[in-house]
Structures are given as C-alpha cells and as structure tokens.
C-alpha cells in the first residue's frame, strides 16, 4: 500500500483558514489564494490534496465546486474533498465537479446505513469516511456530533468495523484533542486502527508538525497523512514530507 501525503486547505468565505479544535470562533486566516496554493502543492510534488468546505460543514450545501473545477483544470492534482454532504445527490455533484474522492463526516456517524449504500453505488475508492474521535475517561474513543458537543452513542471501533465489513477502503480519523494544535499525531490511536482494520487505508489527521511526524504516521501503519497548519505556517517543507 503506497503512502499518500495530502496537503490540505480549509476554506471559509473563499479564504484559506484553520480552526482550533474545530471551533469556528477560533479561526486563523491564511490568505485568499486557494488556487495558487494548490498549484504550489503540485509544483512541490504532491499528487493529491485535501479540500474542506467549512461553510458547508456548518450549513450544508457544498460551495466549492467552482474552486474544485479550477483546481482540476489548472493542476494535475487529485482532490479529496467534503463538507456539508447531506445526501446522495451531494456526493454525485461533488464527483461531477471533479473530485476523486468525497469525504463524508457527520452523516457517516448519524446515518451509517445510508452512507454504506454509497460505497456500493459510487465505489469504495470514491468515498472517504471521516470520523472525528475523542477519548473518554474510560479510554473509549467516542464520536462527538453537533459541533463535537455530544456523543453519537456509538464508538469509533464499532462504527469503523461496521464500515470495514461493508467494504470501506478509505478512513480519515482525527483525534479532536490534537486538531490544529501542532501536538503531534496520536500514533497509539493509528496503530490501534490499522491493526483492527487491516483492509482499510487509514489517513492520519490532526497534530502533524513536521516530517518526523509524517514518517511516524507511516511507521504506525497509516496509508496517508493530512498536512494542514504546519504547512500553512511554514513549519514543514512539503517536498521533504513527500520525499519521506
């Protein structure tokens, strides 16, 4: 299984931003230039990128189709993207706009039966399930919903295994406590997931600080790593991360 580095852009109001632990009130603005940044990713050797519609994640209705189409027209990047996916038509529209994979997050937790059907309808290679997890006092990984304010009533292990049995190929997992914190990825979590889900390509997301963290995620069994804040703040060289 090849390891993929996903440079990431989170977009809100047309601007490149990052949120601290998913909090819209804790936003840092990095510029109004997502397309030039995507071109720069490709110039440094990236083959994929990760694109998030933060407006849609809150309100529904994917808004980045024009940007996605521009990225596909002006670069050779494959794009994994999501935000605000509420139904099958949303998946179809995002794929039609040029996405290589559609990321499904909150709906994958709330309505797994519906989303499992999409794996068959669109193909497992076209869907990435994104599960944001928080460890509770008993050591269980819970899946908070509604802005990470309440637990969904199902654990990460149980839901991930359910999707794996249904043919899931790509799983993006974020440790909420590390999202946007530059605290390093939760390698214990990823070793646990990759051992439990041998047929699933797990992507590490949250906390990646430097090239050493990328290498550590790969050593932990991950099939990829999403790089966000560390790239935007120039704490990491994308070319070096790709080389590792």
Automatic annotation (TrEMBL):
<comment type="pathway">
    <text>Amino-acid biosynthesis; L-histidine biosynthesis; L-histidine from 5-phospho-alpha-D-ribose 1-diphosphate: step 4/9.</text>
</comment>
<keyword id="KW-0963">Cytoplasm</keyword>
<dbReference type="Pfam" id="PF00977">
    <property type="entry name" value="His_biosynth"/>
</dbReference>
<dbReference type="InterPro" id="IPR044524">
    <property type="entry name" value="Isoase_HisA-like"/>
</dbReference>
<dbReference type="GO" id="GO:0003949">
    <property type="term" value="F:1-(5-phosphoribosyl)-5-[(5-phosphoribosylamino)methylideneamino]imidazole-4-carboxamide isomerase activity"/>
</dbReference>
<dbReference type="InterPro" id="IPR011060">
    <property type="entry name" value="RibuloseP-bd_barrel"/>
</dbReference>
<protein>
    <recommendedName>
        <fullName>1-(5-phosphoribosyl)-5-[(5-phosphoribosylamino)methylideneamino] imidazole-4-carboxamide isomerase</fullName>
        <ecNumber>5.3.1.16</ecNumber>
    </recommendedName>
</protein>
<dbReference type="InterPro" id="IPR013785">
    <property type="entry name" value="Aldolase_TIM"/>
</dbReference>
<keyword id="KW-0028">Amino-acid biosynthesis</keyword>
<feature type="active site" description="Proton donor">
    <location>
        <position position="132"/>
    </location>
</feature>
<dbReference type="InterPro" id="IPR006063">
    <property type="entry name" value="HisA_bact_arch"/>
</dbReference>
<keyword id="KW-0368">Histidine biosynthesis</keyword>
<dbReference type="InterPro" id="IPR006062">
    <property type="entry name" value="His_biosynth"/>
</dbReference>
<feature type="active site" description="Proton acceptor">
    <location>
        <position position="10"/>
    </location>
</feature>
<comment type="similarity">
    <text>Belongs to the HisA/HisF family.</text>
</comment>
<keyword id="KW-0413">Isomerase</keyword>
<dbReference type="InterPro" id="IPR023016">
    <property type="entry name" value="HisA/PriA"/>
</dbReference>
């Amino acid at each position: 299984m090849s390891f993929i580095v996903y440079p990431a852009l989170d977009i809100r109001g047309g601007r490149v931003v990052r949120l601290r632990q998913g909090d819209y009130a804790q936003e840092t603005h990095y510029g109004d230039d997502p397309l030039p940044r995507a071109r720069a990713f490709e110039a440094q050797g990236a083959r994929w990128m990760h694109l998030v519609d933060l407006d849609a994640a809150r309100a529904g209705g994917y808004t980045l189709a024009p940007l996605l189409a521009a990225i596909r027209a002006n670069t050779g990047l494959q794009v994994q993207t999501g935000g605000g996916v509420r139904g099958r038509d949303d998946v179809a529209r995002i794929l039609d706009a040029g996405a290589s994979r559609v990321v499904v997050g909150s709906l994958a937790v709330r309505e797994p039966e519906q989303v499992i059907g999409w794996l068959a309808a669109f193909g497992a290679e076209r869907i990435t399930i994104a599960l944001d997890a928080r460890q509770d006092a008993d050591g269980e990984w819970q899946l908070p919903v509604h802005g990470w304010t309440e637990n969904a009533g199902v654990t990460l292990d149980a839901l991930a295994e359910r999707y794996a049995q249904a043919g899931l190929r790509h799983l993006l997992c974020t440790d909420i406590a590390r999202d946007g914190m530059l605290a390093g990825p939760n390698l214990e979590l990823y070793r646990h997931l990759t051992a439990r889900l041998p047929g699933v390509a797990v992507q590490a997301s949250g906390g990646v600080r430097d090239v050493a963290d990328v290498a550590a995620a790969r050593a932990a069994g991950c099939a990829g790593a999403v790089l966000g804040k560390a790239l935007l703040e120039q704490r990491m060289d994308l070319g070096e991360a790709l080389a590792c």
